[in-house]
Amino acid sequence: MTKTVLTALILSVVALSAHAQHDGTLVVANRAGGSISLIDLPTGLEVARLPIGPTIPHEAAVSPDGRYALTGEYGPNSAPGRHIVLIDIVDARVIGRLDLGPNSRPHTVLFHPDGQHAVATMQDSDQIALIDLTSMRVVKTYPTGGREGHMLRLSPDGSRAYVTSRGAQGTLSVVFLDEDRPPVVIDTGRGAEGLSVTPDGSEVWVANRQEESISVIDTERLEIVAEVPSHRFAGRVDIGSNGLAVAPNGGGGGGPV
What CATH fold (topology level) applies to the domain 154-252? Predict the structure, then answer.
């Protein structure tokens, strides 16, 4: 399970590898350093640091089998990125790089549950991309219907993508990956950013960064069914396999970055 941490500009997101040969490896996106660190948890030692480039990575994800990791070149506002990067955790090396083109700026890249595909946000074009990881090519793109799609999560079966858009009033887009169906866009709150899906897939929780709220969306009815109080500027929420939700205390600046 991906575990999100807020550590100013040093660490963005960490993910845990459960591969049999590399059990307990922490995958860390170093925003300021433009790299990915692999940390051995039993010893606490960094075993490798892989350069990604000056277009800083913000997020990291680990494949279902724990062997591979993905990250995206997000970059600062002045120099947005355009690549996603595939990493072999066991061999500690970059094994693939895909150019999503101009006006993409991928922020979140996740493995599909089938382990053969990935889904990435293309924030600056208001789309998401379905990617074949064997050929490292885009299979299909989908419009989100929102503005500045930033964070992405998948339903447990991989049939839906949930995308938060921070632009305008703040929305959650429900994108149907296996259906010829337009996205459903739900207004949640200003600065909609962090989100998480419950283990059974019945709810999506959205952290509204510019408000003091977390919106709870029923995935059957596709509507907000509850509002949970939160701290202002809390830009992440994560729900564990035990059903407990964790959100940061916020306090890290006002505008989206």
Answer: Neuraminidase (2.120.10)
